[in-house]
Inverse folding.
């Protein structure tokens, strides 16, 4: 190979080396540990810029479990449990499946009531407050789907903050296109849930819902976020998993901290609490 060919190959090597890539187009560089602060900043900035451009001023956040399902999905779970029980009625697996199937059935109402709540809120923001009180969820199935679905039923907008997980998670189909954001960092995602929030409604859920609830309660307790209603939907459910009064009796929280949240039992009652808190018309 002659000198000309050597130089041509050298130039090719120069231009194909990762060092020559524009920094923001270099995926390996952007995903490096050293660039984590920049990725955190980008996850904060991108949704803010999009929502500003869309004129989204405030949101109503619906938290709740992925396993609070609509009737048609629960019917499948019940049918599968019954088949398992028919094959081996005395096994621990079949007994456990039937117990869980009954609990899934008991929570269908929460899916329906969350859907109705989101419809009520969206009917209001369509008529009176464009860009205000927009339903916001985590974008997944269960309660999140129910809330986005209720906004969809009303012919209005709703948004979602999805998260990358080890197992694939895709957004539910009821979110408004262009208003669904994907996050890698739970911390930035939780920040975005709270930044524009005018209310938080926690429907029954598991670890994720508890994490989101206690983040909000801690920030309100310490005066680090805006004063808003934090509503626990279904006193029966929440009393069954958390004894807040015990925390106050033990002195690990103050009695006044029990006033940071309240319970609601119906979609209309939930909306009335939010509406009255913010002094808006019915």
């Amino acid at each position: 190979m002659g000198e000309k060919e050597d130089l041509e190959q050298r130039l090719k090597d120069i231009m194909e080396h990762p060092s020559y890539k524009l920094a923001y187009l270099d995926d390996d560089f952007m995903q490096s540990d050293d660039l984590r602060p920049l990725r955190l900043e980008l996850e904060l900035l991108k949704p803010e810029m999009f929502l500003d451009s869309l004129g989204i001023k405030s949101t109503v956040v619906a938290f709740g479990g992925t396993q609070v399902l609509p009737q048609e999905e629960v019917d499948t779970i019940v049918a599968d449990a019954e088949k398992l029980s028919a094959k081996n009625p005395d096994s621990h697996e079949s007994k456990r499946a039937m117990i869980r199937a009954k609990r899934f059935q008991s929570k269908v109402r929460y899916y329906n009531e969350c859907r109705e709540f989101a419809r009520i809120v969206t009917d209001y923001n369509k008529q009176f407050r464009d860009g205000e009180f927009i339903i916001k969820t985590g974008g997944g199935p269960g309660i999140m789907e129910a809330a986005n679905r209720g906004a969809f039923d009303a012919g209005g907008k709703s948004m979602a903050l999805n998260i990358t997980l080890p197992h694939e998670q895709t957004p539910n189909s009821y979110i408004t296109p262009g208003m669904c954001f994907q996050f890698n960092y739970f911390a930035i995602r939780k920040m975005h849930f709270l930044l524009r929030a005018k209310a938080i409604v926690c429907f029954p859920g598991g670890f994720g819902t508890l994490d989101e609830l206690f983040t909000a309660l801690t920030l309100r307790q310490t005066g680090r976020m805006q004063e808003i209603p934090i509503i626990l939907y279904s006193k029966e459910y929440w009393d069954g998993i958390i004894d807040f009064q015990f925390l106050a009796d033990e002195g690990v929280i103050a009695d006044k901290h029990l006033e940071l949240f309240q319970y609601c039992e119906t979609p209309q009652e939930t909306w009335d609490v939010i509406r009255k808190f913010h002094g808006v018309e019915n």
User: Anything to note?
Assistant: Residues 33 and 39 are 10 Å apart (CA to CA). The chain has two domains: 43-69+108-278, 72-104.
